[in-house]
Fold:
Amino acid sequence: MQFTTRPEILGTFGVATSTHWIASTVGMSILEKGGTAVDAAAAMGFVLQVVESHLCGPLGDLPALIHLAGEDAPHVVCGQGTAPAGATIDHYKSEGLDMVPGSGLLATVIPGAFGAWMLMLRDHGRLPLRDVLEPAIHYARHGHPTLARVSATIDGLADFFRDEWPTSYATWLPGGSAPAPESLFCNPALADTYDRILTEAEAASGREAQIEAARRAFYEGFVAEAIDSYLKDACVMDAAGGRRKGVLTGQDMAGWQATYEAPLSVDYHGWTVWKVGMWSQGPTLLQSLRLLDGIGIADMDLNGADFVHTVTEVMKLSFADREAYYGDPSHTEIPTDTLLSRDYAATRRALIGLRASLDQRPGQIEGYDLWTQAAIKRSAKDSVAAPGAGAGEPTMAHLSEKRGDTVHIDVIDQWGNMVSATPSGGWLQSSPVVPGLGMPLNSRAQMFWLTDGLPTSLAPGRRPRTTLSPSMAGRGTPSLAFGTPGGDQQDQWQLILFLRLVHGDMNLQAAIDAPLFNTSHFQSSFYPRGTQPGHLMVEPAFGEAVMADLKARGHDLHVAEPWTVGRMTAASRDPNGLMRAAATPRLMQAYAVGR
Structure:
């Protein structure tokens, strides 16, 4: 039996797993109160905004998959806000920009996470809103132990906050110094914001009416008013090195609501895998599975050089298509059926060679030549970071503490309902704190391009092509929920995890503990949108022989520090009702709980 860093959690009542132990235990407490997986996931999401404020915030975004017991497929919840009415290419160019900054006020879209949680709670929760919000309010008001990475992030931005974002300085450096690791950190303004939302909500009669009142308080009431008032005059430094005003208004917020939609899916070796739509990068995992279906992965050593090389080359092709073709299908006709077809995969599979590719190779689909040529041209342009606050979303200890990241949540309740959710955005380093609210805006608009005619062109009302990408899979109906933070790496690590579960006869914890790798060969989703042709990062646990083999195949190999790649969590339910859950030991934050 393979050694694991932790046991795979087993139970029959419920399981909750996330990227922070406090959130996971809060989720389990909600299940113990009789809450559903949605109640638990929402409570966990609000707590993560407090305890991992460098990774997600209340004004961020949220895609989620919900599987309701007895149904054949999950539902997608779209909490990805759209570009404001004033977010036009002409306006951004008039501000001297040729790229959307990675931080600051022009980087924001309408915040979608709160609306998504309210939609999910209204339709699929059981508990009162107070039960869901009170844990987050408690930790914001009375304090939580500061993570070392949060302390380092704030300390590294102290001078920038003091000089450029004074509201952030007052929030994150109370008394003039960054919170020390393990010291109790409070955000009383955030606690007050959620307390006021609860007070206004509870003036309504009935659970659903209260949840709707909370949504109105956020999008049409005092929260939107505070954001609107602040953005009328605020002019702050951004990652592009200039002081600029934002374009988001209270009217933009009032006109937006979270929605449901159908997922995309493919079948693979008796499994079905479900992902969020083309406005996310999730379909790259589906495309990768289509490519791998004819390659013979099952016969490979899942920790060997053949496996790493093959999966890496497949991911390069899938992500090249992401750059050319993905975007908001509500605004642009995306060739989704072609991209996910077996015939298309067969033509792409023929491109996989024995050596590492150094080229960006989107597929050629008739009628879309302009998109593919634009993607190739963009990727050839050198991008250099400019002054300003940390902007991107790449994850792990070997990258800058100043960069943002993400969190992830998986929950299964006693009835068999299941949630996989990946909240992000609104990081403490993304934008100044809005006065009086204790929360900064998001920076998801950096996914857009300031070029007309593309599926990812900046346009009012359009969703940015997010990296956020929860997953579900099962043999027939959903039985497995999984995901990870990690920006462009999310669907790389999830693909590796899924392949090891399907072909490796591993339990969840063993599959998560196994060494990981990822490539940054393709264009980054985050400012300044660079490429690293041939890049391959591996954990040293693969061993010297495997790493030497990969170098010999032409990969630009980077060896990470031990146990630093990936932050995956997963939960599953067997046909007999036995539940399983696991979380990565990497960075010593994520935990799974259950009984």
In short: The first strand starts at residue 9 and ends at 11. The radius of gyration is 22 Å.
